[in-house]
Amino acid sequence: MSVPPARPRVLILAFQGWSDAGDATTEVLQHLGGLIDSEVLHVISAEGYVDFQVHRPKLVFDDAGKRQLEWPDTRLYGPVQRPGENPAPGDDATRETVRRIDGTPVTDLFLLAGVEPARDWQNFADKIVELVDVWAIDFVVILGSMFSDAPHTRPIVTTMTSENEARRAETGAVRSTYEGPAGISSVIDLALGDAGIETLSLWAQVPHYVHSTPSPKATLALLDKLEELLDIVIPRGELLVQANEWEANINRIAESDDEMTRYIRKLEENRDEELAAETTGDAIALEFEKFLKGGSRFARDVDAVATAPVQDRTAPDESGTEAGGAPPEDDKNDDSEERPGAQP
Prior knowledge:
The protein is of the alpha/beta class. It has helices at 24-33, 121-134, 165-171, 184-194, 216-230, 239-255, 258-275, 281-292, 304-307, and strands at 10-16, 38-44, 58-61, 67-70, 74-79, 99-100, 109-115, 139-148, 158-161, 198-207, 232-233. Helix 1 (24-33) packs across helix 5.
């Protein structure tokens, strides 16, 4: 009797900060963490890496009612079931979880969540490479989201890039031609590549004029691509409802603002022209350059969107990705720290 080939062990990672526009990537990890059986496998302490004036520790109460500090550490989450062990008995056929096309639960998916470190990036990247080696991970997907001149009324544009030629041929990803300031995602990407680990970067474009509110539509777009990329089925939960409400809230604000309406209409025209041809890595690189140069053409901040009701969002899951949850409002997108760019 032939033994079926081992499935590749996949790590999906994302960081709060510049590369998490609209909280899209950390919401992806939080959503996946709530669906799979995972536990904390390793913690990279924030000490020495994170600027605590930007990402402050939180005071929380533990189960015994004692106050303690929760630090913005980076955590690796992985399957509860160790390789070689038999699954625990029980019928989970009806439980909402990430599954393969044949209906079997995914048990080889790892998640890494944290905040973008402020210093010592090369050493931080080396620690990620070590974790990938220790846990025999075969393939790493690096998530990112960026603010761009994208209309909220059109499908969210996603782009995949990879340095691996075979992976590009298999997935339709392109090789990035971006040159310029880099973020921690690029540092990790290159470090993993140097170690012989296959990687793919998946980025989503988020409308810059709604930067003060999470973007469930972008989160959905990333999940759609992950589902296609990994050949799995990911339940969406309430995300579709949240995305519809998000778009309706922005539409409602735009209806009472002629300037905003004209601006969005112009973005729609531009996007429709762009979508007539395939979006390339060069186009994404151009969006990065415009953002880094402060080239947004619409200065109005629609903070009112942030106060509009978005249907109850899933709270951080202790068994999932609490390190990837949203930071306190006074720490989120803090412009007091210089924000490096990131390779698309």
